[in-house]
Structures are given as C-alpha cells and as structure tokens.
C-alpha cells in the first residue's frame, strides 16, 4: 500500500460519506413521486453532498463552480417552497451551506483544505457547525422517541417494524450528519 495510514483513513471515511449521501439521495429520489418538491430538494442535496465528498485530490476543479450553481438553484427552489411552510427553512440553510462549502472549496483547493481568510468566514463555519450539531441531536432524539418503548422481552429477537416516517427521519439525520462531517473537515 502506498501512502500513510491517516490518508488511507481519510479516503475511506470520504468514500463512506459518499455512500451515505448517495443512498440518502436515492431514497429521497424514490419519494419524489409522493412528496413532491421537498423530497426533490432533499434528493438534490443528497446527490450533491455525495459528489462534493468524492475525494478527487487536486483534480476536479470543474466541481466547485458546478456545485455552486446547482446549490444556488436549490436555494432558489427552497425559497419557492417557503411559501408552503417554515419546514423548508432547513432546505434553504442546507443549500446555502453547500454554496458556502463549494465557494470555500473552490478558493482553497479542495474540500477539507479550504484556506479561509478573515474572521467572518470561520465564524460562519462555527455557526453552521452549531446549527447542524443541534439538528443532528434533535433529529436523533426524534428518531429514538418515535420508535417508542419496545415490546415486552420474550424468547428470541423482537421483529423490527420501520415506518416510512422513520425512514424519512433517518434519511434526514444521515444527511445532517454528513453535512456536519463536511463542515468539520473545513
């Protein structure tokens, strides 16, 4: 094997993040038919996060402007969805966060290596980290409490019944954790 153990570990974690985001995006894409615009925005977010997390090294300079444009369009879409309720504020924050990371990645040479200058941008990164940490903790708590108490203990493992609402929450939680991981690597 060539390279250090830490670079191999970073590459493996990047590919796991790609897989997590792509699977979440695929599930959201499957939901588009029944849920409409919100699920479409989540699918774009999942696939865009997967593409952003691909470890391309120094190659892929095309990626940052393209992702920036895609997420600017997603932000406009989220603004349009705000007419339907405040839930879509999170989609707007997510899209704008991805625009921010694409801009930082394009100016700094790559994801996780953004060279941010000035006090404003690290402050924004910190605020986004707090937002997504809270989102993940709250989402995890909602997912755990949604399951409710388990059945009485009996012989053998209890059957697991997962509802579509729990899958949606798990998908959102996975994408929130992915966003948190990408922000932490900036």
Our count of domains comes out at 1
Radius of gyration: 18 Å
Termini Cα gap: 27 Å
* Secondary structure tally, helices: 6
Helix-strand topology string: HHHHHH
Q: Report helical residue fraction.
A: over 70%
What's this, in brief?
The chain has 186 residues and is mainly alpha-helical. It contains 6 helices and no strands.
What would you note in describing this structure?
By secondary structure, this protein is mainly alpha-helical. The chain has one domain (5-148, 159-184). The chain has 6 helices and no strands. Helix 1 (5-35) runs antiparallel to helix 2 (37-53), helix 2 runs antiparallel to helix 3 (63-81) and helix 2 (37-53) runs parallel beside helix 4 (89-108). The longest helix is centred in the N-terminal third of the chain and has 31 residues, at 5-35. Mean pLDDT is 79; it is low at 109-119.
Main attributes of the structure:
single chain; 6 helices; 186 residues; 73% helix
Present the secondary structure layout.
Elements: H1 5-35, H2 37-53, H3 63-81, H4 89-108, H5 120-147, H6 164-184
Helix pairs in contact: 1-2, 1-6, 2-3, 2-4, 2-6, 3-4, 5-6
């Amino acid at each position: 094997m060539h390279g250090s153990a830490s670079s191999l570990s970073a590459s493996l974690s990047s590919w796991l993040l790609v897989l997590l985001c792509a699977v979440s995006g695929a599930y959201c894409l499957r939901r588009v038919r029944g849920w409409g615009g919100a699920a479409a925005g989540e699918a774009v977010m999942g696939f865009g996060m997967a593409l952003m997390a691909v470890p391309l090294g120094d190659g892929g300079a095309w990626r940052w402007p393209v992702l920036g444009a895609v997420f600017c369009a997603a932000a406009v879409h989220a603004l349009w969805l705000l007419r339907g309720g405040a839930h879509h504020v999170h989609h707007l924050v997510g899209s704008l966060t991805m625009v921010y990371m694409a801009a930082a990645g394009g100016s700094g040479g790559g994801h996780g290596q953004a060279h941010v200058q000035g006090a404003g941008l690290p402050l924004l990164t910190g605020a986004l980290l707090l937002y997504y940490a809270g989102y993940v903790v709250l989402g995890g708590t909602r997912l755990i409490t949604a399951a409710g108490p388990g059945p009485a203990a009996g012989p053998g493992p209890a059957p697991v019944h997962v509802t579509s609402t729990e899958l949606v929450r798990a998908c959102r939680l996975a994408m929130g954790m992915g966003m948190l991981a990408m922000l932490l690597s900036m």
